[in-house]
Amino acid sequence: MTKSTFCTQLTNNDRYVYGKLQACCWITRSADLTNPIEVGKYRKWMADIKSWVPECNYCRKCEALGLTSPRLQSFERTLPDEDSIVAEFQIDRLCNGACLICGPYNSTTWEKYNPSPHFEIKNINTRAKNDATKHLRQVIDNLDFKKVVSLNFLGGEPLLSDTHLIIIRELEKYKDLKDVSLNYITNGSQLPSDEIIEIWKKFKRVVLNLSIDGTGEHFNYLRWPLQWHQVERNLRYLMDANIPSLKFTCSYTITPFNIYYHDEYVKWANVFFTNLYMSTNDTNLFFAKPFAASGVMNSRSIPVKLQQTVRLKYSNFQSFDQNQGHTIDKCLSPFNEQEYKKFMEYVTQQDEKRKNNWRHVFPEISEYFK
Description:
By secondary structure, the protein is of the alpha/beta class. Helices cover 36% and strands 12% of the residues.
């Protein structure tokens, strides 16, 4: 298949997500992996896209705001061949977090904490494991491993199970791992075993994309029940583990609660990663490409006065690609009263269940919320 000139996600990404095939996690159309005819039609549809279609509105909106979109980011990667495949897997819901921006769809902890009346809580992990086994079979049946140049593991929390190892061992039958990049979106709470670390050393590059929306108590609240001290301890261990190909980056989501504190997170990165990034002298890149949260935690819930404060606070804050300008204010959206009410109801309900109080965690912005 010829690489797309509009978006290489469309022609060079295979994203496997709970029994379906997608180009990426933002596109709103997918194909059922149990239906080969549907999969074939879907691949042809993606290859024929030459300009904006409704299914790609997420990227279109990002670019209209001047933000870096997944479409634009797809051209930043170097693919060795026209038909190279970047394979992405969201097929295992096993997760130890119930993050506010997530839900039961991607987390067994969320499901236990907010259970369906149709299933017993004690069977949630067993069902998730059985589902992952079924989805692994679909991957092996559909993915052309000989063309794979990158493996991307999403969750759940990918380091909680052996799903990623099964796929890596399947890939080894067809490829030399030194020609492949390995990427994880991880909450940082799980320390990989010695076996996994040794396998990582075989790859061309290993990237741990840390899914964190803040530091310290902010992380503990937004990524409940995970603990920040555990994440820092794991990061220090990995930085000392002598894995030459290992890199760290960040999957950073902007919400009404954390947008004001962006400078604090950058300050943490400047201190924590000083030695690791000494050669580039640019630790600001760690939090450089935030995404505005979707769903109930979206930026339309940020009160007008807080938006004004954020714009003023970061008007001269230089931490991003100079070609793009500052992006924190670009994550803001016009205030919507209904979205705000949904947001406040949601966090109030979650605080009651979790025995938390967001006003104690984010006191500097408490006055902006009714």
